[in-house]
């Protein structure tokens, strides 16, 4: 009798702790076959929790360095937090997973030391064409998206973001450029910035530039980019600069994106 009671108790204990498990999903992963890059590219896509219940179009945040072991998860988390507590609309986040960021995020250079150190470098033009001709059309054809398009890039990603802004600014409505590596190719992008940007259309664009305590070169370059944009004749351009004295190149991204979102989407008063 005692044995039966013990077995019965064990059964109830076991069943009480036996729970059904299911995957935790915040979106989906897409493999996009790129003819321009001649390779498959992985996209990590965060979807708002109401995506399948709402008949609305969502802003899209395109995130460079968007692998799950890089910036995708914590940026998606910031978006979700700003949806809850601030006046940020629900957004789709498209994380572009890296294959070779030194190849994709840098423009051509003839400097021997850079070509030796980074032998695959200098293919940003192909990557920009991939964004314009393959990535954005795919997202716009397969998801409910609005005309509001953000680009987030840090370091070499900030260099690429700057290049897109200066050469094809119409691709995004909002640019968040953090610690841009404008030192690349002896600052050739920065040196040509005024001429490049002057040829761009005067359309509504918002640019947020941030840099931390990262050495005089990077700090001065980021500020020069800001001043160049500030003094441009683009009347519909809105530009913000933020210096994070307590952050370095490794720690700045999360707080700078938080601050960029906060500038645009203040706290929701009850």
What does this protein structure show overall?
- The protein is an alpha/beta fold.
- Helices cover 42% and strands 21% of the residues.
- The chain has 10 helices and 8 strands.
- An 8-stranded mixed sheet has the order 1-2-4-3-5-6-7-8, with helices on both faces.
- The longest helix is centred in the middle third of the chain and has 19 residues, at 124-142.
- The model has no long low-confidence stretch (mean pLDDT 93).
Task: Supply the key terms.
42% helix; 8 strands; 270 residues; single chain; alpha/beta; 8-stranded mixed sheet; 21% strand
Distance between the termini: 62 Å
Parts with pLDDT < 50 across at least 5 consecutive residues: none
Strand portion, in percent? 15-25%
Q: Write down the overall mean pLDDT.
A: 93
Instruction: Output the radius of gyration.
Output: 22 Å
Number of helices: 10
Overall outline: globular
Number of strands: 8
Helix content: 40-55%
| Element order: H for helix, E for strand | HEEEHEHHHEHEHHEHEH
- The SS-based structural class is alpha/beta
Strand order of the largest sheet: 1-2-4-3-5-6-7-8
| Main sheet summary | 8 strands, mixed
What's the quick description here?
The chain contains 10 helices and 8 strands. The chain is α/β, with parallel strands linked by helices and 270 residues long.
């Amino acid at each position: 009798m005692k044995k039966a009671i013990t077995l019965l108790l064990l059964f109830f204990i076991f069943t009480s702790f036996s729970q059904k498990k299911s995957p935790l999903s915040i979106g989906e992963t897409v493999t996009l076959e790129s003819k321009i890059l001649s390779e498959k590219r992985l996209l990590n896509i965060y979807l708002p929790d109401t995506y399948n219940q709402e008949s609305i179009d969502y802003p899209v945040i395109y995130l460079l360095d968007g692998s799950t072991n890089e910036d995708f998860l914590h940026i998606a988390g910031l978006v979700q937090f700003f949806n809850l507590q601030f006046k940020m609309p629900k957004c789709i986040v498209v994380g572009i997973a890296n294959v070779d960021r030194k190849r994709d995020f840098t423009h051509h250079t003839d400097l021997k030391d850079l070509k030796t150190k980074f032998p695959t470098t200098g293919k940003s033009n192909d990557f920009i064409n991939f964004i314009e001709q393959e990535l954005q059309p795919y997202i716009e054809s397969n998801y409910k998206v609005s005309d509001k398009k953000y680009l987030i890039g840090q370091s070499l990603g900030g260099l690429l973001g700057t290049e897109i802004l200066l050469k094809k600014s119409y691709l995004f409505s909002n640019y968040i450029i953090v610690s841009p590596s404008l030192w690349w190719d002896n600052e050739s992008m920065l040196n040509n910035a005024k001429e490049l940007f002057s040829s761009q259309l005067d359309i509504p664009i918002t640019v947020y530039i941030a840099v931390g305590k990262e050495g005089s070169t990077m700090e001065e370059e980021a500020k020069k980019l800001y001043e160049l944009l500030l003094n441009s004749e683009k009347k519909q351009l809105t530009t913000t600069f933020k210096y994070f004295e307590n952050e370095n190149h490794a720690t700045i991204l999360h707080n700078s994106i938080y601050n960029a979102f906060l500038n645009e989407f203040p706290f929701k008063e009850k």
